[in-house]
Amino acid sequence: MQRLRYITDEEKTPEISDLIAAAEVKGAPDPRIMSIMTRSPLGVLWGKYWHALLYEGLLPHRLKEMVRLYMSVAHQCGYCSTVRSTQGQTEGVTEELVRELWQFESSDKLSEQEKAALRYAKRFKAEEGAIDSDESWAELHDHFSDEEIIELGLFCADVHGVGQFARSLDVVSWEEACQINPTLAVQMRD
User: Fold this and answer.
1) What mean pLDDT, rounded, does the chain reach?
2) In order of start, what are the domains of the chain with their CATH numbers?
3) DSSP state string for 69-89
4) Max CA-CA distance within the chain?
């Protein structure tokens, strides 16, 4: 059971209701996490920021959705690992493609830019300072503009930090996520 309660109907403002309704339509984040986050005024601001970061910007949504899912499974967030963006699904982020993410280097379904973003996400999750290398930055500059690098860095930082907080909320445990989608546990072993 989640560790913080959902917002009540009496607590919802029109703005909060709109954020939760958008979450219902867009799928990521889903209404459960938005119904927790919007209990805080800064959580409302985060909800707006997250929607802009995930659905707007220079980088393709498909790329960001793959990075989000890759990082979510890497830190075993049951909630984040089971949530799917409807736009991502429309843009080809199928369950088959999600399974490819753990062997992304050899995948013929991913572009070189998508692979570079996943390598960056992998480094981001690996250890403190792993993204600081000249090699990492050279690869980023090979595939992204400076503005896209800023967006990717902000995106990975939010997925990493807020993802760990979301995991701790226990909306969906890792064990429950593996029951919902048994391939998650297999992907972690590969």
Assistant:
1) 92
2) 6-56 (no CATH), 60-189 (1.20.1290.10)
3) HHHHHHTT-HHHHH---HHHH
4) 52
